[in-house]
Amino acid sequence: MFPLADGSPTDPRRATQLLTRWEFDWSKPGNFTMARLSDERCEYPRIDERRIGLSYRHGYVACNGGPGSDDIFHRGIGHFDHATKQTRVYAAGSRCAVAEPVFVAKNRDAQEGEGYLLTNIFDEDRNASHLAIFDAEQIERGPIARAHLDHRVPVGFHGLWKAA
């Protein structure tokens, strides 16, 4: 997305980000495999962080637009099921830009995927953001709650969830 050294623009299609898995063979440094998981343009992939370093089924992304499209912003949140290879999407609308989704387990003992998905959504018409909270198992139904702010939060803002 950055201009070349002479100031000329780069090819915007090269900015497209796709969900891709890289696997490294730690017993043979330098060996790796790469597999495209979806042809859906997306960014900010996240999982239930309790599964980091372990196998996992559920992944969450910002999608619908974004770098490499005609729209710099992502306009939806996606749930990618690694078992079925299917993506379910909540479309926020043409005037709402979504940020990185963050997964929050319902409780300490919840199964993977049982919980909530939080994301910041910038509403261009209000010129303000809101925190949208989704049922992580049914994101396509839309937010189950919203916390409206009176100002804009940059959609590039990254966050984590830390239980009290």
Task: Give the helix/strand layout.
Layout: E1 18-24, E2 32-47, E3 58-65, E4 74-81, E5 86-91, E6 96-98, E7 102-105, E8 115-123, E9 128-135, E10 145-148
Antiparallel strand pairs: 1-2, 2-3, 3-4, 4-5, 6-8, 7-8, 8-9, 9-10
Unreliable stretches = none
Q: Total strand count, please?
A: 10
Largest sheet, strands/sense/barrel? 5 strands, antiparallel
Main sheet strand line-up: 1-2-3-4-5
What share of the residues lie within helices? under 10%
| Structural class by helix and strand composition | mainly beta
- How many helical stretches? 0
Kindly report the oligomeric state of this protein.
single chain
Proportion of beta-strand residues: 35-45%
| Gap between N and C termini | 38 Å
Shape: globular
Rg, Cα atoms, Å: 17 Å
Mean pLDDT: 91
Q: What is the helix/strand order?
A: EEEEEEEEEE
What does this entry look like structurally?
- With 164 residues, the chain is mostly beta strands.
- The chain has a domain at 40-148.
- The chain is 0% helix and 45% strand.
- The strands form two sheets. It has a five-stranded antiparallel β-sheet, with no helix packed on it.
- It is globular.
- It starts with 17 loop residues before the first strand and ends in a 16-residue tail after the last strand.
- The mean pLDDT is 91.
